[in-house]
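#struct-help
A.M.: can someone run this one for me? Single chain, 274 residues.
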Amino acid sequence: MTLSRIQQPLLYLLLILASLAILFPLLYTLSSAFMSSAESAAYPPRLLPSGLHFANFVQVFQTIPVARFIGNSFVVATAIMLGQLMTASLAAYAFAFLRFPGKALLFSLFLSTMMIPWEVTMIPNYLTVRSWHWVDTYQGLIVPFIASAFGTFLLRQYFLQLPKELFEAAKMDGCGHLRIFSRLVLPLSAPALATLAVYSFLTNWSNYLWPLLITNKESMRTVQIGIGMLQFEEVTAWNVVMAGIVVLLLPSLLLLIIGLKPLVRGITAGALKG
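D.P.: on it. Structure tokens below:
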């Protein structure tokens, strides 16, 4: 069924308006980042600045150690991403291809952990990290997130779609599980691995509560806490806060742009049969 000449422009107009509504917070943040202090505090709020006040960005770099915060977040998010790729892919391979007693029950229990709110496990994790003297350390920020039930489920479902004939031929040639995993499963699962990598990195880049809980030194803070450090009890310059948000969002936006195609391809892989 084709759209009429009137319906198609209306559909495009509706999609444009919906896109603007979704992008409005980001566009307003970018606009406020270039406002003066008086303009950012004006009521009713201004939508556009009278000029480009780049001094806001200079003030951000003078107020907080931006490079240090971005470096900490990059190290933590990258380490968690690599850890989840390793643990999730190994666990997914075991649940997909190995046979052992109680596999279905164990996988069900594994998935049930996704239903437990993070706030329930936060205090036990904090007590464990503190007893190991990992407060204000990279391992305290990284280790609690190394395993991912969601990542295991995602990769297992993808592994199950791979052609079984390849694995049967590999076993006939004398390949063991380790060789099948490294030479067949991982190369064929690149879209799913890329999906998990982008999702894991962006999720942990945006993590706020856990770094706030276990870091006390400014040198160990991450970008999300750095944004909060731009707000003061006496007065808050929202134009400077918005400039800080723009600066600290740039790395994650660049990664999203680079990884958007693999992310979509991995999510939609196997959705259609043909």
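A.M.: thanks! Residues 66-97 form the longest helix (32 residues).
D.P.: also worth noting: Residues 270-274 have pLDDT under 50 and may be disordered.
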